[in-house]
Amino acid sequence: MDQKIISLAAEKTADRLQEFLQSLKDNDLANLLQNQAVKGKAAGALLRAIFKGSPCSEEAGALRRLKIYICGIHLVESGDLQKEVASEIIGLLMLEAHNFPGPLLVELAREFVGAIEEGSLTNGKSLELLPIILTALVANKENLAYGKGVLSGEECKKQLINTLCSGRWDRQYVIQLTSMFKDVPLTAEEVEFVMEKVLRMFSKLNLQEIPPLVYQLLVLSSKGSRRRALEGIITFFSELDKQHNEEQSGDELLDLVTVPSGELRHVEGTVILHIVFAIKLDCELGRELLKHLKAGQDFSNNICPFSIALLLSVTRIQRYEEQVFDLLKASVVKSFKDLQLLQGSKFLQNLVTQRSCVSTMILEVVKNSVHSWDHVTQGLVEFGFILMDSYGPKKILDGKTIETSSSLSKIPNQHACKLGANILLETFKIHEMIRQEILEQVLNRVVTRASSPISHYLDLLSSIIMYAPLVLQSCSSKVTETFDYLSFLPLQTVQGLLKAVQVHVDVHSRYNSVANETFCLEIIDSLRRCLGQQADVRLMLYEGFYDVLRRNSQLANSIMQTLLSQLKQFYEPEPDVLPPLKLEACILTEGDRISLQEPLDYLLCCVQHCLVWYKSRVMPLQQEEEEEEGFYQDLEDMLESVTSRMIKSELEDFELDKSADFSQNSGVGIKNNICASLVMGICEVLIEYNFSISNFSKNKFEEVLSLFMCYKKLSDILNEKAGKGKAKTANKMDSFLSMKFVSDLLTALFRDSTQSHEESLSVLRSSNEFMRYAVSVALQKVQQLKETGHVSGPDGQNPEKIFQNLCDITRVLLWRYTSIPTSVEDLGKKEKGKSISLLCLEGLQKIFSAVQQFYQPKIHHFLRALDVTDNEGEEAEGSVSHRAAFQIRQFQRCLLNLLSQEEDFDSKEALLLVTVLSNLSRLLEPSSPQFVQMLSWTLKICKENSWEDASFCKGLMNLLFSLHVLYKSPVTLLRDLSQDIHGHLGDIDQDIEVEKTNHFAMVNLRTAAPTVCLLVLSQAEKVLEEVDWLITKLKGQVSQEILSEEASSQATLPNHPVEKAIIMQLGTLLTFFHELVQTALPSGSCVDILLKDLCKMYTILTALVRYYLQVCQSSGGILKNMEKLVKLSGSHLTPLCYSFISYIQNKSQSLTCTGEKKGKAPAVATAMARVLRETKPIPNLIFAIEQYEKFLIHLSKKSKVNLMQHMKLSTSRDFKIKGNILDVVLREDEDDNEGTASEHEGQNKEPAKKKRKKEMKCLS
């Protein structure tokens, strides 16, 4: 039969074929086609013949064609056919689709939709036909019956897609169905509909099926809805990551569908690659990605580890690189700023939940990148360096880093820089392939940025080498090249570099010694070339010898011998020769240039430390090898001889008496300064040495005191001779006393009560100068720690040892200050300089600050170390807040005692106590009762004490505000203080007498302005900043809701508490400004800042009005409280602002006129400058008020609430001639002209101009 059909089809006309096919039953024909197809016998030819004999022009033929077409679909779908046969049938069916009439195309499409919904597809191969059928349907121009109505082909297609996307999809065909839609002609609305369906299917698929589906979705997105596609993918993986993290952090064992980390990360990596590839082909997709992530930084899951990894991969596309890094930088800094704002305000903490920080997400990306995310790694490295370059310390001045950014942005910038370093370090740890590149880039920056601070790069270098010492060998050529530049680099850079590489030297024993030795020889060769050029580098060598000796005791003999031979070059061997050291040999004179050739003080310091260590650690173990002890005996004898002869020497022996020249302008003066610093350094070294070996011998302590007197004489002469502006030259020198020795010395002086030590210690205790010196050196060491993070001398780089010494020093200083207050100390004696107790207090203040800066995790151990009554067993008891509160109570008592001394009130000590209390209060947990007690105490002191000392008042008020903001918003405090200020300074209208409120006794006529006034304005600015931040957050949320289709009238309800809080804050601030704009503030900064803050107030009121305009747009309304706020602003602020402006202008005019009448040019210039400065913010304020009123009018129209009924029309600021004033001024000018005409005949033109200016000012 099949042969007959095929042979009939070969005839020129199809008449006989049609007749034959007409005679057959449709089922027989279908069975025949099926049998032939399964056998693989000429199924294509048979199908072609059947279609030829079934023309669509006849109804029977069209129906037969439909049945056979459907049969062909079922055959292809059955999976029984050979691949070639199935492909041939699909090809034929595709060609024939366009020949079908409209109704049959609808029928075919419905067949497909039904099969998909029922899940009756077997392999989905036939889905290739659906786009052809739908395309043919769109091309069909006739109206078709569909359901109960008649639709065009386009509308039928829309209905079919609607039905298809509303129905159930078998998950195994999701990818094929998505792929199919790319060939269907779709409108934007249909694309969105399909997109939503596909995105809903993500959660129903296996993880491994997601990447191919994402690929198809991205191809489909070229038709539209790119942003929705990206948003859906990012949200899916964000939720998946969150769920995965929760599962991993869960305590219970999870036997559920836990996805292995590796599998999830590999899938994410593949998806990211697909998106990046799609962006390369479709620029619009890249633009939409950036738009989407910029838009929702605050209020959605847009920024998440997955989207960050995606962005970092996109940086490999050049056109997006800069934009992406800028976006990531902005996100990081914004995140840190938001965190800073939240942590510093209880008001914000109560309203806003803290989201996870972007920095945490980025470090999570670094951790995830271990799963073959090579496309992310390069972006991570670049971003790490961008953060370090952009937010590192900026300038160097006199060897110190200067922070150029404002104090508010300082901490976020520091965090951003630290994040950059963490990204690089963690990436370095995970990816061996990229280690060399990171190290080379760090070394490049160390060498090329010598003029900028590079401490952050040196810290990173140190961490890198600490983690993987052998990395230095893998880039040995780069390291040796860097060392070749040493002689051209600043000393700080050289020190940092050597200290970082020193870690490598410490761990040699674990690795290949031959390779290390060769590498070290190369570095030493580079170092040797530097030693001849910089005395400073040799100085570093002496500092390092002691550390090397302690780590490698077998090198002791060679090191000590080297030091001995070096010292002999400058030692006078004759016992009667004074002085005992050749200072002249240490100084190099080249023409007019005089410089230090040999740092003899550092050499001697190194000798004494090495000798003391050797005697205590090595000699007890080497009793047999007595012949080697000759070196040490020689060194001991030399130090003993130097000590005795230094004591005998007079300043004249060094040519450094009072008559010597110490000016920095002459060669002799420079030489004498160098000699003096060497002698002082040597004295300090010998003080430490003799104390260390003294074993509490009275004779030794007498020698120590004699050495100190030599040091003191020179120090006094230097201070006296240095002259004005350089009076602190001597104090700038770093002390040679080690921190451990300072700790031991202070403990001995103040806390040693051993009976056998009493007689010898009384020698040192008898000298107040010496005890003051010991405390001063402790202060200097702590200051050095604060500025550089380390101290000079042995163990100065060891954080653990420094911390232990800090604890010991603090314990002594605390005891000394609390036991002997300044009021008791030295009664009747009036010595120069600060008392020891005051120095102790200053030291405590510096230590508390330094410990919080460098030892935050060890605060508990620190506070425990201060508690002398603490027993070992009580370690677990007592929280940080509890222990800090104990110390706070001691200082509170001290301050109260000080405040009770009405005659001898020491404001410097009071201010130091307030600073100490501020430092300690930071250790209190804001929710603890100790914190509340501290706040109540501070509030009580401010309310009850009325000391007229501006600096003490400022310190105490700052403490009050710093505590109050962590407890609740300070707006009511500000309102009370503004009433006090108004009461003390009086009203701008002199006829009005203001009632004094006296909420705070601390506010008085002396402190009200500028001290307290500037403080409260500064706090008001912070409150305004918080409110502004909240309004921005609310606006963003409303924008998101307007964009999403789900937005409803209830969508804004969750914002009501935040809105109420904002309105309450602004309402209270409004009453605060209401008081200040009526206050007769003195000219200067108070007026200037008040005008600027008023401008901010109106700008933020405008922002709130604009927010409500958005709310009204999304069918929301305005709160009743908002209406009250607008009413308050109209009645209590705006009119008073205009009165205040008039007050300032009148005051300015009288100031200018007074200056002109005095006739002195400088007075006039100063007056004019002040007038200009104070009146400059006025136009900005007027503009801000007018903008506020303009948007209020808009809001009134939108909300149908008349908000303008409470607003008075703004005062006209136009130019206006006042006749009465004009007459007075003209008469004054005539009088002036008559009196001065004869004196200024030749200069009439210039004064005339000035007079006209004066007239304009007085008239306007």
From TrEMBL:
<dbReference type="Pfam" id="PF14677">
    <property type="entry name" value="FANCI_S3"/>
</dbReference>
<dbReference type="Pfam" id="PF14675">
    <property type="entry name" value="FANCI_S1"/>
</dbReference>
<feature type="domain" description="FANCI solenoid 1 cap">
    <location>
        <begin position="1"/>
        <end position="53"/>
    </location>
</feature>
<feature type="domain" description="FANCI helical">
    <location>
        <begin position="284"/>
        <end position="368"/>
    </location>
</feature>
<dbReference type="InterPro" id="IPR026171">
    <property type="entry name" value="FANCI"/>
</dbReference>
<dbReference type="InterPro" id="IPR029310">
    <property type="entry name" value="FANCI_HD1"/>
</dbReference>
<dbReference type="InterPro" id="IPR029313">
    <property type="entry name" value="FANCI_S3"/>
</dbReference>
<feature type="region of interest" description="Disordered">
    <location>
        <begin position="1228"/>
        <end position="1260"/>
    </location>
</feature>
<feature type="domain" description="FANCI helical">
    <location>
        <begin position="500"/>
        <end position="718"/>
    </location>
</feature>
<dbReference type="Pfam" id="PF14679">
    <property type="entry name" value="FANCI_HD1"/>
</dbReference>
<feature type="compositionally biased region" description="Basic residues">
    <location>
        <begin position="1248"/>
        <end position="1260"/>
    </location>
</feature>
<dbReference type="Pfam" id="PF14680">
    <property type="entry name" value="FANCI_HD2"/>
</dbReference>
<feature type="compositionally biased region" description="Basic and acidic residues">
    <location>
        <begin position="1237"/>
        <end position="1247"/>
    </location>
</feature>
<dbReference type="InterPro" id="IPR029312">
    <property type="entry name" value="FANCI_HD2"/>
</dbReference>
<dbReference type="InterPro" id="IPR029314">
    <property type="entry name" value="FANCI_S4"/>
</dbReference>
<protein>
    <submittedName>
        <fullName>FA complementation group I</fullName>
    </submittedName>
</protein>
<dbReference type="Pfam" id="PF14678">
    <property type="entry name" value="FANCI_S4"/>
</dbReference>
<dbReference type="InterPro" id="IPR029308">
    <property type="entry name" value="FANCI_S1"/>
</dbReference>
<dbReference type="InterPro" id="IPR029305">
    <property type="entry name" value="FANCI_S1-cap"/>
</dbReference>
<dbReference type="Pfam" id="PF14674">
    <property type="entry name" value="FANCI_S1-cap"/>
</dbReference>
<feature type="domain" description="FANCI solenoid 4">
    <location>
        <begin position="973"/>
        <end position="1222"/>
    </location>
</feature>
<dbReference type="GO" id="GO:0006281">
    <property type="term" value="P:DNA repair"/>
</dbReference>
<feature type="domain" description="FANCI solenoid 1">
    <location>
        <begin position="64"/>
        <end position="280"/>
    </location>
</feature>
<feature type="domain" description="FANCI solenoid 3">
    <location>
        <begin position="736"/>
        <end position="960"/>
    </location>
</feature>
